[in-house]
Amino acid sequence: MTLLFMKRQLTTLLIALNLASYAQNNCDCDKKPELKTFISCKPTVFQNGAMLFRQFDCNSSRLIFKNGRITKKIYEHEKDFIHLTPKLGYTYWWEYKNAFLIENRLISGCCDPSEYILFNKSNGEIISKLGTSLYQTEKQNDKPFILTLENYNTLLLTNLSTNKSYQIHLPKGLLEKSLETSKYLFVEYLFEEGRLIKNDFYIKYNHRENIKDNWKSTVLKFKLSAYGI
After folding, report:
1. Rounded Cα distance, 86 and 199, in Å
2. Cis omega before residue 58 (within 30°)?
3. Helix, strand or coil for residue 192?
4. Closest by alpha carbon to 148, among 103, 94, 178?
5. Residue 101's closest CA among 46, 40, 24?
6. Rounded to whole angstroms, how far apart are CA atoms 161 and 127?
7. pLDDT in tens, 41-80
8. Contact 114, 121 (CB under 8 A)
9. DSSP-assigned states of every residue in 206-228
10. Read out DSSP for 30-99?
11. Does pLDDT of 190 surpass 80?
């Protein structure tokens, strides 16, 4: 281990400790001390030294991105919704090579599908709003990707190492007609759980055009190497 490498590691650690202290010092509401029991202000430190952390006071709670001189608020709950901070809006996030992925929960309860948003890990800018998730690889996967529903006619397969998304077009109107003749509230429930077999990914969806029709199933197959995965 070289001296230069050790100095860089020490500098990164000191910056992270200072930022952690900064984050914790902006988490308090005298009128509602119970907020501290369920809103964590512990920062997430990414491998490039950037951070995500929460702050709150009696007027709002915020999710803050910070990297060097860049500090930006990427999400906020106003006064009446502070108590929903862990359950509503930007609730979970995952780090990838050059980006981080955030789950945006649209309601605090069950069971609306969450939206997923991909952010640049260097500057905190939005790369892409991906839609609702149909499948996401485990974090430890060395070839991470997410399959999302962009709209009723289009899926997005996103390579989470390169941040590149590929559109997969479905028969126009088929999912919408299928949803109308089903017992479901959300089109995502027409899809079954995806399967990853070596370098191939499979996902099945059920459909019909008329309530009198029998349900049919179509299996979509993705050769992941074709998408750089």
Report:
1. 35
2. no
3. coil
4. 103
5. 46
6. 13
7. 999 999 999 999 999 999 999 999 999 999 999 999 999 9
8. no
9. EE-SSTTSPPEEEEEEEEGGGGT
10. TT-GGGGGT---PPEEPTTS-EEEEEE-SSEEEEEEEETTEEEEEEEEEGGGGGGTTTSEEEEEEE-SSE
11. yes
202 within 8 A of 220, measured Cβ to Cβ: yes
Tokens 């900064």 belong to residue: 22
The Cα-based distances of 43 to 145, 193, 205 in angstroms read: 25, 33, 39
Residue 10 has, within 13 A of its CA and on its CB side, a CA count of 7
pLDDT over 80 at 161, yes or no = yes
Residue 162 has, within 13 A of its CA and on its CB side, a CA count of: 10
3-state secondary structure of 7: helix
Closest of 171, 172, 174, 175 to residue 186, by C-alpha: 175
Rounded to whole angstroms, the Cα distance separating 144 from 104 reads: 19
